[in-house]
Here is the input.
Amino acid sequence: MTPDAARRFDLHMHTNRSDGRYDPEEVLARCAATGLDVIALTDHDLVAPVSPGVHTVDGRDIFVIGAAEISGHHDGHEFHLLVYFPGEIPEEFRTFCTRQMQARADRYAGAIEQLDLEGLEGPDEAAKAGERSLTRLHLAQAMVEAGHATHLRDAFNTFRDTQAVPSIAFSFTDAIRMAVTHGGITSWAHPPMQHARTYLKTFVDAGLQGLEAHRPRVSGKDRKTFKKMAKRYNLVLTGGSDWHGWNGHQLGLFHVNRVDLEPFLELLSAA
Ligand SMILES: [Zn+2]
Ligand SMILES: [Zn+2]
Here is the structure.
């Protein structure tokens, strides 16, 4: 598994295969430049085209853990699930992602129609083939470009008001079961505290193994609560920046230390 000397971890970031700004190669180059040792590219419903294992980038070794971030629905809320694999990502999981991306492409086309967005092009071939994951951000950006909204925020508000862009209709608990069945280690991405209190037991019963507690904007108090929850339900903690590359946010300013990920790394190497 990950090299023992690895110290700086970031297990949550995005590329332009979903709603990140930079292509996977550029993201790796930035990881190298900023001195990260172990990373995971966690695109939405997509396995990034970077093989798991060691990559030497600009003379620096970076260990990549195969991963993805899956969207699911529970009780009227959309939640995200991080899935990490001990080695290669199994074909069945990739097939699942491809289907989800095709559903996203359909949803994108449906939203253009429902909102009557003249001048917007439908999903491209890569999106229809499930090689690229279309998100609300893509639609919002296209709306601004075509003059249907002045700012991204206006575009997002349009979706919210009209419900024209429904959440991915896949159950979160089914996502957990599916990921575990295919050998993935699951962690609830950026869990909202209130929802964690309400739903955590249900998700643990479905097979959830982790909570993403190490994040840039989590208060010390909430982190403590997540730690308590993890202890109670025998969960591991994971962490990452959820970096997308927009708004000038710099990769590497946030990282997680090995000591905080030890139980997760043990679970991953035992899987
Ligand atoms: Zn997310
Ligand atoms: Zn994310």
Notes: Residues 8-94+169-270 form a domain with the TIM Barrel fold (CATH 3.20.20.140). The mean pLDDT is 94.
